[in-house]
Design goal:
The complex is a heterodimer of chains A (369) and B (293).
Chain A (H helix, E strand, L loop, with lengths): L2 H7 L9 E10 L2 E11 L4 E5 L6 H9 L6 E6 L2 E2 L10 E4 L11 H11 L4 H14 L15 H14 L4 E5 L7 H18 L2 E5 L3 H7 L2 E6 L2 E6 L1 H6 L4 H6 L6 E8 L2 E4 L2 E2 L14 E6 L5 E2 L7 E10 L4 E6 L5 E6 L10 E5 L6 E3 L5 E2 L1
Parallel strand pairs in A: 3-8, 3-9, 6-7, 7-8
Antiparallel strand pairs in A: 1-2, 1-4, 4-5, 9-10, 11-12, 11-14, 12-13, 14-20, 15-19, 16-17, 16-19, 17-18, 20-21
Helix pairs in contact in A: 3-4, 3-5, 4-5
Chain B lengths: L2 H44 L4 H4 L15 H8 L4 H32 L5 H10 L9 H10 L6 H26 L2 H9 L4 H12 L1 H17 L2 H6 L8 H9 L8 H27 L9
Classes of the chains: A alpha+beta (369), B mainly alpha (293).
Bound molecules: adenosine-5'-triphosphate (ATP) and magnesium ion (MG).
Magnesium ion (MG) binds next to helix 2 of chain A.
Chain lengths: 369, 293
């Protein structure tokens, strides 16, 4: 498949102006850290890379930035092959987790550094710095040194420095992970606003799934150097391709129970559950993994199909309560109760679901659709 | 017990305690400072004694027979004059400092930021030369300089000083560059600044405390060095201050002219003091604070 065809198949718009990764591979010595990554990112898209620690998110981002060499494959930005181009020639700007501000320069000089080094007229540099500072509420801080700023302010300066370069693509590597929880939410909203305002392509690495879900136009889930799934947040959450993606996104974690189809329907631990119908030849034979999101399980009566769950404890969160328990085969089950008193520990409740909310996976973890 | 006595009992030691500690630490600090300053003051005071008084046992340390500039006159009349020899010393020390900084910054930058074959080996090789006592290579160094027609020249002396200074300086500078977070250089690379421009505009300012330390040490070592200068410089015109001072030391009839020696020592101290005072800000403060979280 050519990259153009791949782009078309994913429904991307003009691929020529976005970022196109074509079978990108990265080896450190003998170790393949990334294997055959192909991805087409449309112009203006907000892409989030998520995945467990060490899966290669940062490496992939740094390869797009040009800070890491590409072992195999090609990277194109804006329709131009930049596989071997210097970072400064790629039309990208990067915001680092550690901010990486120049400590000896004022905020103003930090932000204007790239333009000044490129020999642009002083007035132009000043104007662009002012504009970016305005956008990020940094005007009052322009003459300070990085050491005199709070973490959140430093991060804004780092973003400002990126904006001043007027890049085609913004790259963020876990930009908020050094901030405290409250500030993180605030900055997350600011970044979302910034994206709406600037309309640039943004590629964002995080392991915070809330950031991923809220910011992304499209989430790319990586594991062990491969793309597990790339899709809209709603698709990643509601329609995962495999068990890993289903388990990685969503909190509390999705419930996974072993099940099988009998003549009467989907059965878990000997109890029937209203699930999708069996499709002959695909899932009626053998065991399946049944996955249901906690909030999609609900209490059912004794005569309705449902699985019995023995309650361990409940977590009260104000607007809802998470109830933790165990299925008959000792698999953990979590459900969400919107109101009312939680069931007592040790008691047994019956949980059921709507058929369309039940996801089935085969023995290898691939989704059965 | 009433409330007021409790609060008084609690509050007053809390207010007084740090003050008592303050006083004690200041007293200790002053005592130590006096210990260090006493010999210096002694030397400076002795320079103002007349020649005959300077030869007496040095108690009290200050001149009792009136202030005299005899000792400075002795220095002035010796050799080509104290000014000339001070200039020799300054030329040697400043040139050594400049060359040491230039080479060690470039070498440290290279060792820290570039990958090349046998890098580890070369670095250890540079460091290993520190293990060789320089007195033991003085003869070969002298022969090499003679071959280069640089014996008995200040240039030759500078080259030797730089050679002796480099292993430690390169080591220091490599550490200084290593301490700068790699993201800063990467950010600069994205901003289009690499190579020598990266060194000048970004990394240089960040390793300034290292540069200052290396420069200061090079200057002081070159300023105070005696043996190599003694061996290498044969004509009196080229003498640096340490060599001059041993020459001036010999007074009449084998006695030692302490007054002249103290005057020389006092003059030699001046640039060192100025440098320390001017640069203390730099080697105390680490500039990288606030670069990354
Ligand atoms: N310079 C390097 N040399 C050798 N291996 C490396 C190098 N850099 C990264 N790796 C390896 O590549 C893999 C991916 O690293 P990467 O930093 O991209 O992970 P990540 O997904 O960003 O993880 P995290 O969420 O912890 O930041 C890891 O297994 C790491 O050990
Ligand atoms: Mg990472």
């Amino acid at each position: 498949m050519t990259s153009a065809a791949r782009a078309a198949s994913r429904g991307a718009t003009t691929p020529a102006s976005g970022v196109v990764l074509d079978r990108v591979t990265k080896r450190f010595g003998a170790v393949d850290v990334l294997r055959d990554i192909s991805l087409t990112i449309a112009d203006g898209e907000f892409i989030v890379f998520v995945g467990p620690s060490g899966c290669g998110k940062s490496t992939l981002l740094r390869m797009i930035a040009g800070l890491e060499e590409v072992s195999d494959g090609t990277i194109a930005i804006g329709g131009r092959d930049v596989t071997d181009a210097e970072p400064s020639e790629r039309g990208i700007a990067m915001v680092f987790q550690t901010y990486a501000l120049y400590p000896h320069l004022s905020v103003r000089d930090n932000m204007g550094f790239s333009l000044k080094m490129a020999g642009r007229p002083r007035a132009e540099v000043a104007a662009k710095v002012e504009a970016a500072a305005e956008l990020l509420h940094l005007i009052a801080l322009l003459d300070r040194r990085p050491a005199q700023l709070s973490g959140g302010q430093r991060q804004r300066v780092a973003i400002g420095r990126a904006i001043v370069r007027d890049p085609r693509v913004f790259l963020f590597d876990e930009p908020l992970s050094n901030l405290d929880a409250e500030l993180r939410i605030e900055m997350r909203i600011e970044i979302a606003k910034l994206h709406r305002r600037l309309g640039n392509t943004m590629i964002y690495v995080t392991h915070d799934q809330t950031e991923a879900m809220t910011l992304a136009d499209r989430i790319v889930v990586l594991r062990g150097g491969r793309i597990e799934q790339a899709g809209k947040p709603a698709d990643i959450f509601g329609d995962p391709d495999n068990l890993f993606v289903a388990g990685f996104i969503g909190s509390p974690k999705i419930n996974v129970l072993p099940g099988r189809f009998t003549t009467e329907g989907l059965e878990i631990d000997g109890s029937l559950l209203t699930g999708p119908d069996c499709i002959a030849g695909q899932r009626c034979d053998g065991a399946v993994s049944v996955a249901i999101r906690p909030h999609l399980l609900h209490l059912v009566g004794d005569s309705d199909p449902g699985i019995p769950v023995k309650i361990d404890f409940a977590e009260y969160l104000g607007d809802k309560t998470y109830v933790h328990g165990q299925s008959r085969s000792d698999h953990a089950v979590v459900t969400e109760i919107a109101s009312g008193p939680p069931p007592a520990p040790g008691s047994i409740i019956r949980l059921g679901s709507r058929p369309e909310d039940v996801l089935l996976f085969d023995g290898g973890g691939s989704r059965l659709r | 017990m009433t409330v007021s006595t409790i609060s008084g009992a609690v509050a007053s030691p809390r207010r007084r305690m740090p003050r008592r500690i303050d006083i004690m630490s200041h007293a200790a600090g002053i005592l130590v400072a006096l210990l260090f300053l006493a010999p210096i003051a002694w030397a400076v005071l002795a320079t103002f004694k007349s020649r005959s008084e300077a030869a007496q046992p040095p108690l009290p340390p200050w001149p009792t027979e009136g202030i005299s500039l005899d000792n400075f006159r002795t220095l002035e009349n010796f050799g080509a004059g104290i000014l000339h020899h001070t200039l020799n010393s300054l030329i040697v020390a400043i040139a050594t400092t400049a060359l040491t900084i230039l080479v060690s910054v470039l070498a440290g930058y290279g060792f820290s930021r570039y990958r090349f074959p046998l890098k580890g080996f070369f670095f250890v090789l540079v460091l290993a030369t520190m293990m060789v006592p320089f007195q033991s290579i003085l003869t070969p160094l002298f022969l090499i300089l003679a071959e280069l027609k640089l014996q008995n020249t200040l240039v030759g002396l500078v080259l030797i000083y730089v050679t002796l200074q480099l292993p430690f300086s390169v080591f220091m500078m490599r550490n200084a560059f290593d301490a700068v977070p790699p993201e800063i250089a990467e950010a600069a690379r994205i901003d289009g600044v690499t190579g020598l421009r990266l060194l000048i505009h970004v990394l240089g300012p960040l390793v300034m405390p290292g540069i200052v330390s290396v420069g200061l040490i090079a200057f002081l070592n070159a300023w105070n060095e005696f043996l190599a200068a003694l061996v290498l410089l044969t004509s009196q015109d080229n003498y640096t201050l340490p060599v001059l001072l041993t020459a001036v030391r010999a007074g009449h009839y084998g006695s030692i002219d302490w007054g002249a020696v103290q005057a020389g020592v006092t003059i030699m101290m001046i640039p060192c003091l100025i440098l320390f005072l001017a640069l203390q800000r730099h080697y105390i403060r680490g500039l990288t604070a606030g670069a990354v979280k």
